[in-house]
Amino acid sequence: MPRRARIQPGGYVFHVLNRGNGRMTLFEKPADYTAFEAVMAEASDKAAIRLLAYCLMPNHWHLVLWPQSSGDLGRYMQRLTTMHVRRWHEHRHSAGLGHLYQGPYKSFPIETDRHLLAVCRYVERNALRAELVERAENWRWGSMWRRDHSDVLEGVPPLTDWPVPRPRQWRRLVNLPQTAEELERIHESIRRGRPFGGETWQRRTAHALDLESTFRPRGRPKK
After folding, report:
1. How many other C-beta atoms can be found within 10 angstroms of the C-beta atom of residue 172?
2. For the chain, does the N or the C end have fewer beta carbons within 10 angstroms?
3. Partners of residue 13 on adjacent β-strands
4. Residue 51 to residue 63: CA distance in whole angstroms
C-alpha cells in the first residue's frame, strides 16, 4: 500500500475534465494538441499548480492537478480555458460563433493513496479505453507518452512527482482494464463532483470544501 502524503490545506489533488460543446471536436490535428499543451504551460506561470497526469482526447481532456494553495486551481483553470477558447477561435476565424466547451469544467478532489493511483490510471489509459491506440503509452497526447519522451519536448508543462509512489509496474497496470466497480465510482465523482477516496476522508473533505451536496440524492424528495 503506498504511503499517504501529507496534504496541506488548499493542497488537495484534483481530477479536472471538460468536453467540447455537443461533443464537438476540440483537437482536429497534431498542431491543435500541441497548442493546448503550450497553453497548459503558459497558464502554470500564473498559478502554483503541479501537473501529475493528463490525457488530451479529440473532444475532451483530463488533467490531474495538485495546487499548492487555495485558489490556485481556479486561477489556473480560468486562464487555461480562456486562453484556449480565444486562440481556438482566432485560428479558425470563428470568434462569436458559439461556445467551445459544454460548460464550466468539472472537478473532484482525490485522496492521496490508492485512490489517486486509480484516477491517474483511469486518465492515462483513456485513449486505450477508446481504442485509439493498442497500448496506452503510444498515445502521443498524454503523460504516459511524455514520461518516455521528456527529452525531446519543449514548450510543454513539466510533469511533477506524485504525492504517492508510482508502482514499478505502472505501465503494465495502466494497460490492464480497471474493474467495473472502480470505473463506476470514478464516473460518479465526475458526474457529481464528489470527493474520491475512503468514506471517512470523503465526508471530511466534503465538509472542508463545501461539497456535502454531492452526497445528497438527486431529484425531488419523496413525500
Report:
1. 9
2. C
3. 110
4. 7
Residue 91 near residue 50, CB atoms below 8 Å: no
Confidence of residue 1 (pLDDT cuts 50, 70, 90): very low
Give dist(CA 109, CA 194) in Å, integer: 8
pLDDT at 80 over 70: yes
Which of 72, 74, 185, 61 is CA-nearest to residue 119?
A: 185
- C-alpha angle with apex 127: 195 to 42, nearest 5 degrees? 70
Residue 205 — left, alpha, or beta (φ > 0 → left; ψ -120 to 50 → alpha)? alpha
Spell out a b/e string for 109-121, using b for 16 or more CB atoms within 10 Å of the CB, else e. bbbbbebbbbbbb
Domains defined along the chain, listed by start? 13-215 (3.30.70.1290)
